């Protein structure tokens, strides 16, 4: 009998040693690795679409930069990337096709995708999971968040539902569905690797990072939680980092999509201040106990903050009931507020707390502090951008140099028949010094048609030359 008891004890001990040990603080509701994602995929697939676009490209599109040199030699990739938004001159016209993804949000054909998927498209085709094809129209788009809303003429579709990205936790399972490299209805799974990622793509960066496989063509597709709810819109990858993808959070996207649905455009609140995070030095200087809040570095004249009485040197730490701990907090909070809404701004001025009511305006299309760009070619055929220190450094000029950089040259124009090329710096017109776009446009207005105009250009650090034009 004793031997039997000893044998039973040995069996029990062996069993305990080989039983997985749960952490002391583990919760019973933790979802471990799902046995399968197949049911989720079956439910979600009818709501995911493939998007194909066609654009008419002047001059060869993307391939052009691989065959044509740069004005200063050196790093071609840097130069092309720097001038990509402004460079339109190409040797010949062609059609360019691109692929992307999207997902249905209503049974009558509204579809969400990325703005960069449908931007400048002349034709948009949507392919459903059953291979049915539709032509789509753009309802509205928002470049600042890279979101777009399109529509097809269809009924009885199977839309996906939005979930809360705020409630989604790092480490939880997610599924991405899309058309990577044109491979429709591709399903990949992973976890949320991080939240609140800032990539430097704009003022509203707040990305979900995931290791669910995302590749070119996934853009605009849904990132789903384990319940099949959309918690993100897949939008970006890091080319040098395999397995790292980024999605726009659903809580940010839904507000934008609602505005696009109702008014086809997005209006954001605007205070009119330039801000920065409070450093330890600023906190000590202003007598603030914690390094939280934002320092007002500039107040734009006649904008809402200026009219309400906010001053340079104020430290904003609360908007209505929301604590402001960083510049990003303030930017997102004000952007989420309605134009015309009055917000209560709590701040510290001269060591004392103060509350100021600010009636918000509409955010301008372009940051007031950004260098201005000509909306179109000038009368000679130049596309120009105002020089700043960052641009000067990248192009090899002294950082304090002034003038206008040639970013593009219109095909067939007077400018195209000269030796001027991209990257050259326009410094003077008829010995009149040019520092800004306004200087240039105002001077040209004063010149009578038919008169010869002399433009002084600089190339690199040493070469200076003059080009003459007849004012039309």
Description of the molecule:
- This protein has 472 residues and is an alpha+beta fold.
- The chain has 4 domains: 43-152, Trypsin-like serine proteases (Thrombin, subunit H, Beta Barrel); 173-263, Thrombin, subunit H; 269-362, PDZ domain (Pdz3 Domain, Roll); 382-470, Pdz3 Domain.
- It has 10 helices and 26 strands.
- It has helices spanning 2-17, 38-44, 76-83, 115-118, 250-263, 280-286, 304-308, 327-335, 389-395, 437-446; strands at residues 48-58, 93-104, 110-114, 123-127, 133-142, 147-152, 173-178, 186-197, 207-210, 222-224, 230-237, 245-249, 269-270, 273-277, 294-299, 315-319, 322-323, 342-349, 352-359, 361-362, 382-386, 404-409, 425-429, 432-433, 452-459, 463-470.
- It has a 6-stranded antiparallel barrel.
- Strand 10 (222-224) and strand 11 form a beta hairpin.
- It is globular and about 75 Å long.
- The protein starts with a helix and ends with a strand.
- Mean pLDDT is 82; it is low at 7-28, 60-81 and 85-91.
- Its main location: periplasm.
- Substrate binds at residues 116, 146, 217-219.
- It is found in: Periplasm.
- It is an enzyme of class 3 (hydrolase).
- This is Probable periplasmic serine endoprotease DegP-like.
